[in-house]
Amino acid sequence: MSHARNLGLEAAIGDYICFIDDDDYVSPSYLEALLSAAESDSESDSDSDSDAKAHAPIMSLSNLLCFNDGEKDIYPDHISGNFQRIKNQGLVTTMQARQYLSGPVAKLVAREYALRERFNPRFSNGEDALYIFALSRFYKQYRSTTEDAVYYRRVRGNSARFKLSSRLASMFSLLWAYVCLWIKHPLQYHFILFASRFLAVPKGIWKIYRAKLKK
């Protein structure tokens, strides 16, 4: 998947990049709402107290709902909860939008920043969170779309993210990759976000292990 996404990045010619996995789908207003939120005049927000902040890039974020493979029922997850918390707040900070920074979907990013990083093909899981964390150094402002703009994520029980052995095998390498990103730009990343991502890797493995024990 990393190779495919990197090829897509290199082929893209627009001003923005929007990732949509081939087995997911989006609502009709999805792209329009993301673009509108990303290009809204941030000077009108009360917390835009300087020209530098007013012209800083904005990452727009959509609602996200899940459905299990082969089923029609729609349900929320942690990103859905993050959307509900920020949907009426205008511009929000990195930590207020931190749940969104665990993957590339349900958002719009400027192509000029998206092309400064690549997905790491060394990893079969965790590479998407690593990529978005790398981009987070360019973004300090985030805005949600309207609620009718929805990314619908298909959940597959046999996907790489749920395979305990592969995640254990790559855990330390993935943690080191986060450290390397931090070392390159220590003043540009939000430290608490870095710490939370660093802790999320073993936490995700523990959740898979507990789920397997219950079966």
Layout of strands and helices, then pairs:
Blueprint: H1 2-11, E1 16-17, E2 25-26, H2 30-39, H3 51-54, E3 58-61, E4 63-68, H4 78-86, E5 91-92, E6 107-110, H5 111-114, H6 127-135, E7 141-144, E8 150-155, H7 164-184, H8 191-214
Parallel strand pairs: 3-7, 4-8
Antiparallel strand pairs: 1-6, 2-8, 3-6, 5-7
Helix pairs in contact: 6-7, 7-8
What would you note in describing this structure?
It is a single chain. The chain has helices at 2-11, 30-39, 51-54, 78-86, 111-114, 127-135, 164-184, 191-214, and strands at 16-17, 25-26, 58-61, 63-68, 91-92, 107-110, 141-144, 150-155. It has 215 residues and is an alpha/beta fold. The chain has a 5-stranded mixed β-sheet with strand order 1-6-3-7-5. The chain has a 3-stranded mixed β-sheet with strand order 2-8-4. Helix 6 packs parallel to helix 7 and helix 7 (164-184) runs antiparallel to helix 8 (191-214). The longest helix is centred in the last third of the chain and has 24 residues, at 191-214. It starts with a helix and ends with a helix.
Name a few traits of the molecule.
alpha/beta; single chain; 8 strands; five-stranded mixed beta sheet; 215 residues; 8 helices; three-stranded mixed beta sheet
> What is the N-to-C order of secondary-structure elements (H for helix, E for strand)?
HEEHHEEHEEHHEEHH
Average pLDDT level: 87
Number of separate strands: 8
Helix content: 40-55%
Task: Point out poorly predicted stretches.
Answer: none
